[in-house]
Amino acid sequence: MTTVLNPATCLMALALLLGGTGARADGMVPDTSVVIVHEAEGEAAVSVTNTDSQLALLHVTLQDIPEDTEPLLVVTPPLSRVEPSKSQLVRFILQSQQPLLTQRLKRAIFEGMPQGRPATQAGHARVGVTVRQNLPVIIHPKGLAPNRTPWTELTWSQHGNTLQVRNTSPYVVRLAQELRLLPGDGKAMLPRTYVLPGETLSVPASGGPATKVRLQPATVYGFAVAAYEAPIT
Fold first, then answer.
1. Who's near 14: CB < 8 A, 6+ residues apart?
2. What is the annotated signal peptide range for this record (predicted)?
3. Residue 114, pLDDT score
């Protein structure tokens, strides 16, 4: 059985699995909650620790988001043996043929496959649970200044019962899907937790005409910050 966990909830989920169900949890833990590959450097490295008490194989794969399927990265090594409590350095190497104009978003999956488990005794059952970490990968263009508040670059408009958001910036914006329309108790729901550079999303909205939208943005590392209110034009 494979359990997919967000990095922010991984430790809590592990505690529940170990303490609540008696299942055994094994996992590879990256030293970051997001992989950032700078075009100027050409690659990024992540240290992944085997938190299990047994030797395990670390399998790392890259996953495209549906909106961007261009192959931009290679990962090395994709498969490695990691001793218990030891770490493996994984490199993400940029292979873009053209200079990047905006940030790009991919995902990286880190999965540990335990090796050398002792045989189960007769009459005893063992449930093995591997923790599969799925992290965002942001590729940052050369010469683009860092932006700690990219959600302020979003522009919002309302057309009847439709709320529209446009990202005219070169930054990937991460935010919660739930939106509040002010004044009043209007609501809207984004289809996902990111808005890509140059993208426009339109979603149904309740509550009638509004002048502001309240959103819950997240930093590049996925940590929630204070709610932000943006004007609706």
1. 25, 27, 131
2. 1-25
3. 87
